[in-house]
Design goal:
Layout lengths: L1 E7 L13 H7 L2 H7 L3 E7 L18 H20 L3 E6 L5 H15 L3 E6 L20 H5 L20 E4 L6 H7 L5 E3 L1 H7 L2 H13 L3 E7 L21 H14 L2 E7 L10 H13 L11
Parallel strand pairs: 1-2, 1-3, 3-8, 4-5, 4-7, 5-6, 7-8
Length: about 300
């Protein structure tokens, strides 16, 4: 697999500074080298800059940094689509989760040209199903899934390029949903595999069911991996910690299953805040998880 690393030092989708350092932390933790050691071709395209945007507004006064987030969305959409058009797999190094507004849009644009359906696997503690009109925090990192699923309120962003039907979206590992998001989710047929579901059914069955649907449709799969998908005891470097996340073994199993499926065509790594890390432990763990997603087996792990 030929992969392209895209740095997206996005910090404007939330209010806790530090995600801007995420792409550098992944590089220092050896992400590119880890992928190359597994036999993949790796190119690093460096860090993007947001497009200059003027004249956008939102009637919700809580929303902040709207123009900058729209600028990031446009730049990432263009870059991700270009990488996919070249037959490579984009790996977006974030940056907060608002970057998925652009990365998934780019994947959807490419999928439409390729005539293939795009599926979305959202590995996150949060559903991110607010719109700019419903968010009370004003943090746009909590809105990508809503735009991707076609909810209204995204006038500043324009229409999503090929809305992903709810049945092609899987929220996996969520455990923190606001009341407004919950009410909206009840009107959409999105697969919601929260931690209660995973505790009852196990990690494997719900994921395999979703992957089977991707395979049956001949689809492309975008995976968006948020640091807070992991339990904060093993991944503290995130500004939105929620107890009860996936364990080290569970997270690796998810990534190994994704590798074995051979379905992943684009990937986000988001919400890493190195300022909150402990000696780089979260960045290193995320690199290890990418290793599992790219083909490293559990018995390949070195003793430490």
């Amino acid at each position: 697999m030929d992969c392209s690393l895209i740095g997206a030092p996005v910090d404007e989708g939330q209010r806790r500074a530090g995600c801007v350092m995420g792409p550098a932390a992944y590089r220092v933790a050896g992400l590119g080298a880890a992928m190359a050691e597994l036999g993949h071709g790796v190119e690093d395209l460096g860090d993007l800059r947001p497009d200059a945007v003027e004249g956008v507004s939102c009637p919700n006064p809580a929303v902040h940094d709207l123009a900058t987030v729209v600028g990031w969305t446009r730049a990432l959409r263009r870059q991700v689509a270009e990488v996919l058009d070249r037959g490579r797999m984009p790996v977006v190094l974030g940056g907060d989760h608002s970057l998925a507004l652009g990365s998934v849009a780019g994947a959807a644009e490419h999928a439409a040209r390729a005539g293939r359906p795009l599926f979305l696997l959202w590995l996150d503690a949060h559903s991110d199903f607010h719109t700019p009109l419903t968010t009370t925090s004003g943090n746009l990192h909590g809105t990508p899934v809503a735009w991707i699923a076609g909810r209204e309120g995204f006038d500043a962003f324009g229409p999503f390029p090929g809305v992903i039907p709810p049945e092609r979206i899987c929220l996996y590992g969520i455990r923190s949903v606001d009341p407004a998001e919950h009410a909206a989710l009840l009107t959409h047929d999105i697969a919601i595999n929260d931690m209660r579901v995973l505790d009852e059914r196990g990690i494997v069955a719900p994921l395999r069911e979703f992957l089977d649907s991707v395979r049956a449709a001949g689809g492309m799969l975008h995976v968006s991996l948020d640091v807070d998908f992991l339990d904060p005891s093993i991944a503290p470097a995130v500004g939105t910690t929620v107890p009860g996340g996936t364990t080290f073994r569970e997270a690796h199993l998810v990534c190994e299953l994704l590798h074995e499926s051979r379905l992943v065509t684009s990937l986000d790594l988001v919400e890493l805040n190195p300022f909150l890390d402990k000696r780089g432990m979260t960045a290193k763990l995320m690199v290890e998880l990418v290793g599992s997603l790219m083909g490293r087996k559990v018995f390949d792990r070195p003793t430490r």
